[in-house]
UniProtKB/TrEMBL annotation:
CDD domains in UniProt: ABC_DR_subfamily_A
GO terms for MF: ATP binding; ATP hydrolysis activity
Protein name per the record: Multidrug ABC transporter ATP-binding protein
The species this protein was found in: Halomonas salipaludis
The ABC transporter domain, residue ranges: 25-254
Amino acid sequence: MAPSSLNELSQAVLPDALGAAEPIIRISGLEKTYAGGFHALKSVDLSIRRGEIFALLGPNGAGKTTLISVVCGLVNPSAGEVRVDGFDNVRDYRQARSLIGLVPQELTNEAFETVWNTVSFSRGLFGKPPNPAHIERILKSLTLWDKRDNRLITLSGGMKRRVLIAKALSHEPRILFLDEPTAGVDVELRREMWEVVRQLRDSGVTIILTTHYIEEAEEMADRIGVINGGRIVLVEEKAALMRKLGSKQLTLHLQVPLDAVPASLAGYDLQLAADGSELIYSYDGAEEGSGITALLGDLDAAGIAFKDLHTRQSSLEDIFVDLVKERP
Ligand SMILES: Nc1ncnc2c1ncn2[C@@H]1O[C@H](COP(=O)(O)OP(=O)(O)O)[C@@H](O)[C@H]1O
Ligand SMILES: [Mg+2]
């Protein structure tokens, strides 16, 4: 991957300085009920900031693809509004859509077409005049240049995915949607995809990716939105999310295993683990006064000795599991 060539893309995609603070996408009161009566999106409000990587995290069936499809104008909303850089995505469909590139969840490619032709053709679909120099920049930035005359059927899985990205970038969009870009992809290819996405963001493209991999959201996102059952249940800066919701755990490895937590320690809501040889104490990592000093004092008073102890910050995974469990 040649970062310099991706940076060249930025000339084409950097947002205007004017209105830079305005969200690039504003979704309000969005509802989707499919023809069969299934209520897939429930009063979704969401704003996407210019230049960020936003991860929409949710389990299978949560409504991620539906939300993306509505924003991209592929599925009609039942109610609500989507504005893409000010353009209403229904009333001003062409303007709104031309700002967006979409890398779909399903890999569909014209197997016998060449890389060059398939990417050039995608650009034409948006009514843009041919721009071989732009196509060349994209292919080089995605290390597909050497493969430009290859038929898609001859490419590896990773290259096919990069062709999908090249197609999505062919008409110089300022926003790129990636729907589960690494679903079913091996670890190495996943890391490669992450690198490509980061470089695109650095070149000025706003990125919205959906994923059901917590690790992916944790690794990639500036902000994370969690969707479950068609509802956005949380939107947070990743760092703040980890700080605010991340509870901590203290594990004490006991000298002598316990059968039960002594009554004198009932106030700490301790858990016994590892056949009574570990005591686990959970506390809010963000709050002053964890209660650990008092706990250690009370343990001593109860005659409970420990060999060692360690603490652990809960991960996004714990938070996610809690959210999805609590609000079905
Ligand atoms: N065309 C459709 N008609 C009826 N129901 C659909 C349609 N597409 C998706 N759904 C349903 O809407 C829900 C959300 O689907 P989807 O947006 O694909 O979720 P995700 O991408 O998060 O896995 C699922 O229960 C799915 O079965
Ligand atoms: Mg999906």
